Amino acid sequence: MAINKDTIKYVAKLSRIELEESTLEDFTSQIGRILTYIEKLNQLDTENTVPTSHAVELKNVFRKDENTPSLENQAALSNAPEQENGHFKVPKII
Amino acid sequence: MQYETVIGLEVHVQLDINTKAFCGCSIEFGKPANTQVCPICLGLPGVLPVLNEKFLQYAMRAALALNCTVANFLKFDRKHYYYPDLPKNYQISQYDKPLAANGHLQIKIETGQKKIRILRVHMEEDAGKLIHTKDASLVDLNRTGTPLIEIVSQPDISSAAEAYTYLTRLKSILEYLEISDCDMEKGSLRCDANISLRPQGHTTLGTKAEVKNMNSFKGVRDALNYEIIRQEKTLREGGTIIQETRLWNEEKQKTFSMRSKEEAHDYRYIPDPDLVPFVIEKEAIEKARRELPELPQAKKERLIKDYSLSDYDAGILSADKQLAIYFEDAAQNYKQPKIICNWLMSDIMSYLNTNNIPIKKLKEVLPIDKLVAMLKLIDNNTISGKIAKQVLPEMLKTGKDTSVIIKEKNLSQITDAGVIESVINEVINENEKVVEEVKSGKDKALMFLVGQVMKKTRGKANPRMVNSLIKKKLEV
Question: Mind spelling out the 3-state secondary structure of chain A?
Answer without folding.
Answer: CCCCHHHHHHHHHHCCCCCCHHHHHHHHHHHHHHHHHHHHHHHCCCCCCCCCCCCCCCCCCEECCCCCCCCCHHHHCCCCCCEECCEEEEECCC
